Amino acid sequence: MTILAGVFSRRVGGAIPASTCEALRKTISRSPEDQRIEYALGSAYLVKVDIGAFGQPAHHRSDEGAVSVMAGEPLMADGLASGETRDQHLLALHGQWERDDFSALRHSAGTFCAAFYDPARATGHLIADRLGLRTLYYAVHGDFVYFSSALRILEALEVLPKAADVQALAEITGFGYPFGPGTPYAGIKMLLPCEVLSIRPDGVTSSRYFEWSSVQPIDVPEEQARVEAYRLFQRAMRRRLHGDRTTFAYLSGGLDSRVVVAALRAEQVHTYTFNYSLAGTQDQVFAKQYAEKCGAVHYELPTEPGPNWSAVMAQTWAASTARKARDADRPHVVWTGEGGSVGLGHVYISPEIVRQLRAGDWDGGIQTFLNQQSKSLLTRILKPDVASRFDGHLAAVLKQEMQAQRQTDPVRALYIFLNLNGPRRHLVNHFETIDQHRLEFQLPFYDSELMEYLTALPADPCLYHGFYVRWLGLFDGTVLEVPWQAYPGHVPSPVPVPADVPDQWNTPASAAQQKRLRQDLDERTRAMLADSSFPAEVLNKPVLRLMHLAWRLGLANYDYALKAALVYARYARASAGRYELPAAG
């Protein structure tokens, strides 16, 4: 099961309009060959498509008439046999969901979302995985609750009115993503990690089947912690392999994808690796060297920054001689090292932040984090009365999110926030376009069992990839025989990095690519400023005109501001000029 969508009535006996069912059926996939599997249940309608990546469709209807549909894999770590298939897991979970029991999901380790409806009780549930990685959006409007695993599906529903959420857009352009369940639309929310949204005749309620704030810190010798983290990582790999003997994976010049490929090769899995870095960079050179060391069959396609990487991988894998000569056991499943640097490497937490937070200076520590990550709201492009509503907004909301974790150690609170927010937002585009690229990610670093253990460890030894690099000693020796591209200021590779091989941060795109990107930004900005639907009540048009002129004349680099303005304009246009502002002062 790859994409799911549907609608629940909030009234007993309330019928779902046929036009709504048809709209969901039509928009769920943009691939004409996809077959729709539909459940019309009177007061509910569910539809799904499946690209066949996992070999089983993951939907079930009980003899009593209740229906469950799932995208992704729950990968039950305990409570249910980890060797069972996802359809078997869904069958067992379905029986519990019929009793409104979600406790077994406490032992899930995978990436999934699910929808359940019981017509006998007029009760529906929307369910997120433990890290909220598999997106599931919902909107409560009138007598109905609409939902889908891709935002574009709800965007296309004409029956669901849209209003641009100006606060969420400010957070997207200034922080990288909106906080909490926010989306660019005021009426559409994203399920949070571990969340169950229950729709019953008496109302819509939210609950959690697990609280990450409940993870208790542990104090064990570091060597013991490394051994346990290694065991859990191996377990995460094996439960995702399902016995595959041939597969393919991303391989960069960094550590995360290298560790995944090393674990695959340790399991004697024939592995094809693909690299899409700029030519001549550490990312490209070190990936090739490691592939040769570990015995992977390596392909490299020098690629300029900015494409949909999932689409690029799908295209090159489909066209490769490897795919044609020897298909992977599951050719729509690709391995990636997403999450290793955040979960294991503590990449965004510095000693300065730790010192300030531990000294009780929450405001100082949070501001240091925002400064180090170059995160700030771009209020200059907003109308003055709108901009005034965002004074100190990022720091205040981040502090609120951290304090909600109820941790005695504020550093652990920041760590939990980063792992429960950045990963699910970073994967949005992959799942949004999965009907086109048709690839499922295997994400062993985001294994919930592994993440729970890492959350319990003290942060101090993990800073700047310290714990991570020492952990590498448990892998095959080839992992340490090739240099890697380290984050600036982090523990370096023990193998010296050649001075003539640049890193990705100091290697610009080609002159031709830069010219293309500049022309595209210029054209889109001109169109935005000339568009009759320009959100003049939100954006400061005179300031943007001056920024655009100065940028075109080479007097200042305002590309970041122009790009941010385009985000506001895009969602204002999609909302037919409707928007929602945060409360003033």
Provide a short characterization of the protein structure.
The protein is of the alpha/beta class and 585 residues long.
What is the count of β-strands?
19
Globular, elongated, flat, extended or rod-shaped: what is the shape?
globular
Structural class: alpha/beta
Radius of gyration: 24 Å
Determine the fraction of residues in helical runs and give it as a percent range: 25-40%
Strand order of the largest sheet: 2-3-1-9-8-11
Stretches where pLDDT is under 50 for at least 5 consecutive residues are none
Biggest sheet statistics: 6 strands, antiparallel
Number of helices: 22
Distance between the termini: 46 Å
Measured by DSSP, the beta-strand proportion falls in 15-25%
Mean pLDDT: 94
Explained architecture:
The chain is α/β, with parallel strands linked by helices and 585 residues long. Helices cover 38% and strands 15% of the residues. It has 22 helices and 19 strands. A six-stranded antiparallel β-sheet has the order 2-3-1-9-8-11. It has a six-stranded antiparallel β-sheet with strand order 4-5-6-7-12-13, with helices on one face. It has a five-stranded parallel β-sheet with strand order 16-15-14-17-18, covered by helices on one side. A hairpin with a 3-residue loop joins strand 2 and strand 3. It starts with a strand and ends in a 5-residue tail after the last strand. The model has no long low-confidence stretch (mean pLDDT 94).
